[in-house]
Give the backbone structure.
Amino acid sequence: MSKLDVRSPEHCAAKQPHNSPHHHRHSFINSSNFWKLLSSLFSAILAVILLVWLVLRPSKPSFSLQQASVYSLSLSDSAPAAASFLNSSVQLTFIASNPNSRLGIYYDSLRVYASYQGQQITGLASFPPFYQDHGEKNLLSASLTGSNLPVSPYFGSEVASDQVSGKLTVRFEVDGRVRYKVGTWVSGKYRMNVECITAMDFGRGLPTGPLTSQQGGLCSTKL
């Protein structure tokens, strides 16, 4: 005869896992506290960043064009309706300034070229990378040349028109990357664009030149 296994309700309850509502409530409270802690930490980081920005007040670098000289602009012979090719020689000098009293600036891969009437008239020239301390100024010089650069077939007539008016307006475009330095901390790279405009007295000197801007020019910097 087989044995009859009879168990009491208390015995069965002891063998079954507990699924108490208090356990779920405890897990929910822990999850809620975690997100509150994370939110508080994120808010604290933002507050520190804002405080640092308010204290340091970072300003973008400023540029001024001290002098620019156009030594030659000569077009190759071409049909009136065809594209022309330009040879040019330009010399320029910038002053780069760091207006920040607590921040240093690293200048990386600075390049410059000259343009006229929306057309590039020289090749690119590069400035060597350098570091600029608080409130420091640096003199930057470059020789820009162009060899057989394609320009519109109307380039010659535009130059002749400016020659009659007595003014030649040239733009200089600077492109590069900058990094800010605070103590031992250095930021990531920011792209920088500088545009300088200068007007030169224009008579019958070209193409022998040079045309020189004696009063520099206006520059604007974008980061």
Q: What stands out?
A: The chain has two domains: 20-56, 62-222. The chain has a mean pLDDT of 81. The chain has three helices and twelve strands. The domain at 62-222 is CATH 2.60.40 (Immunoglobulin-like).
